[in-house]
Amino acid sequence: xxxxxKIALVNxxxxxxxxxxxxxxxPVRALPSPPCTPHTIALNQRNKMDxxxxxxxxxxxxxxxxxxxxxYRGILDKLNYGNEGxxxxxARSSLPQMPEKTIAEFTQEISRVLIPxxxxxxxxxxxxxxxGFTHWLTNTPLEIVDMVTWDKGKIGMGYRTRRKSEHLIVLxxxxxxxxxxxxxxxxxxxxxxxxxxxxxxxxxxIRLQKELIAAVSQPNxxxxxxxxxxxxxxxxxxxxxxxxxxxxING
Length: 251
Ligand SMILES: C[S@@+](CC[C@H](N)C(=O)[O-])C[C@H]1O[C@@H](n2cnc3c(N)ncnc32)[C@H](O)[C@@H]1O
Prior knowledge:
Blueprint: H1 3-18, E1 47-48, H2 51-56, E2 63-68, H3 74-79, H4 87-94, H5 100-113, E3 114-124, H6 126-131, E4 142-151, E5 165-173, E6 190-192, H7 206-216, E7 222-225, H8 232-240, E8 243-248
Parallel strand pairs: 1-8, 2-3, 2-7, 4-6, 7-8
Antiparallel strand pairs: 3-5, 4-5
Bound molecules: S-adenosylmethionine.
């Protein structure tokens, strides 16, 4: 074998080693579960820390799915029901609110830690849904691929219509594809489920989150939530037999 042929062979082998395993998700997914979790953050626990500090400790391209439910100012600021800080509005208004810039920073960091074709499930209030949120996705490899409306059953506040729903935007890191990645075809895009009764003002539906987790990941994969509130995603992970890694600034 000539020297040139030997060099070509070595280059070819090196290239094959560096090439990412494909496909990302399928019953025969070649990509292993996230290779490492930081020693300072416990799996399947209610970690108390800042979500951006949490995300900064995660390795690039290791997480198949993330949930993010920012503490939006939208409803409080724009609709101003007048009960902020009083009785029913007290628990809601006492939670730390997230400025737009911080939400964009979270989105950026989440996109960094997602594996290729990984998913971000982004909870969204009515105000941001109507006014637009795509500026949070600028310079990220995230694309909008779907949306689920959660019908909470119980009627809430509203000067005009009374609120009964919340929205979940489904974002996918490039490369965008469903085949071999989204493994469930039984999830309707309007989902009825009562809110869990755990006393937390913004808790999200566990069964829906469990179905979504099961649709885009495999047993024992690590699912993250950097602003976990009541840790409903941890409960959903437990039911779906996935590992949970997450935190809330309030613990
Ligand atoms: C809307 S709630 C999340 C509710 C959650 N999805 C659930 O099902 O319970 C938003 C949470 O973000 C938390 N939060 C606000 N700023 C944060 C930050 N910088 N880091 C981590 N958590 C933060 C708040 O304490 C609040 O619990």
